[in-house]
């Protein structure tokens, strides 16, 4: 081999090593994120060219951190199954042309993606399968009836640990080859059925009709009063630490003050600084906790036990109906085991016909557990109310 051939061979070898090194760097830097799909968005994505995955406006901040090469591990809500892997091809962009729902698509923060795995429903892997349950960090130490794990799949673009991401990627790649089938029960089929209603302007909106309307709400006494008051107090305390003013119904204040001492006497308002009619003000005054900045409502919370799920949702719907231009975020706060019930109720047909738009777009679920988690955040005084976007869950993902 002459000197020129040797140099070319060395260069070729160096190119090979550079490719290997770059591959290793990409693998090390690559991050797995959860991508949630409801039955409706799963169906619509499945019949698309699978080149775009979309997320809500509230996830823009997280989307900025996602880079080409990162992977989205896809999860089907209601059935609690892992459905696929999407590889991110480029940074996010904004577009609201209909893909995931037929009109007014809320998933406008979008990525161009490459589908690595996308499974039919019968091949999607249930999270309760022993192989999955016993290996994921957020399920393996829990009984299968425990619902605490659901906090890890409450919203899209939550980051998976390296071990969980790698485990799920390998599992889905293997399932893509083997196509093992999992039973779809009659209950599963009901969950998969997407019901829609047409609004007055001919828009179709996905809704839910709870099966057991004759089933009564749990007695308020089944949730310890002290626990619900503690959550009400924690919500007030979190708002206080964020330098927001707090409104509490006057009948609740003594009980809440036993759990929380405001930072100063002006934090809890004696009168609402809002210019609304008497009917609206009476509705607002009875909401369990309100965060106020200046003369604007920032967030409104109804806490289960203080009010039942349905009456709390009705109060929020009343507020949206009375003031359709009121731009606030509303939350139903309840124990995690009541999550499905809350999300079902928010998505009832009657709540899709509000002038402001479906209640499911402006009212979300937050668990007691999430409020407790947020209350322990040491830097909360440096945060603003948008931190709740990491904890809230929508009726339609």
- What proportion of the residues is helical, as a percent range? 25-40%
DSSP helical segment count: 12
Low-confidence stretches: 1-11, 21-27, 213-223
Average residue pLDDT: 84
The coarse silhouette is globular
> What is the first-to-last residue Cα distance?
63 Å
Structural class assignment:
alpha+beta
Number of strands: 14
Number of separate structural domains: 2
Succession of helices and strands? HEHEHEEEEEHHHEEHEHHEEHEHEH
* Strand proportion: 15-25%
The biggest beta sheet is recorded as: 7 strands, mixed
Radius of gyration: 24 Å
Question: What does this protein look like?
Answer:
The structure is a single chain. The protein is 32% helix and 18% strand. Residues 1-11, 21-27 and 213-223 have low confidence and may be disordered. The chain folds into two domains: 31-178, ph1033 like fold, CATH 3.10.590.10; 208-390, no CATH class. It is built from twelve helices and 14 strands. The chain starts with a helix and ends in a 22-residue tail after the last helix. α7 crosses α12 and α9 (278-285) runs antiparallel to α10. Strands 1, 2, 3, 4, 5, 6 and 7 form a seven-stranded mixed beta sheet that branches.
